[in-house]
Amino acid sequence: xxxxxxxxxxxxxxxxxxxxxxxxxxxxxxxxxxxxxxxxxxxxxxxxxxxxxxxxxxxxxxxxxxxxxxxxxxxxxxxxxxxxxxxxxxxxxxxxxxxxxxxxxxxxxxxxxxxxxxxxxxxxxxxxxxxxxxxxxxxxxxxxx
Length: 145
What we know:
Layout lengths: L10 E2 L4 E2 L2 E2 H7 L3 E5 L3 E4 L1 H10 L10 H11 L5 H7 L7 H12 L3 E3 L12 E3 L1 H10 L6
Antiparallel strand pairs: 1-5, 2-3, 4-5, 6-7
C-alpha cells in the first residue's frame, strides 16, 4: 500500500488501539477526521482542511529556486554542459537535483540543447532560449555578480 502523503485527501487511517479505542474513532470523536467510505477511509475534517492547506509552505517551482536562477545566470554567459555547470556551482559532478532541474528547464522552454538532434551526446551543452533570456531580465539577471 502506498504511504499516504499529508496533503492527500482522502487518506486511510490504520486501526490502532489508543487506550482501548481505535485511533480513527478517537480522532473522529474529536472532530479531526470524518469518515468517507465504510468507516475505513477518512478525510481531514472540512473545518481543519482549509486551515491545514493554508499553513503548508508554498512550494517553489523550478525557476524560482536559487539554484535554477544560478543555472540560468551561468547559461546567460554562454553555453555549458552539465559537468561544467556542476563545477561552477561547486559540485564535483552533476547531482540528481541538477539533472532534474536541467530537465525541467528544458521542458519549460527556458533552455535548449546545442545539439538538439542528439540529446544524449557527450558533447551536449545547454543555452538560454529567448524565454530564458526574458526570464533572466525579469530577475534582473544576465549581469555578472
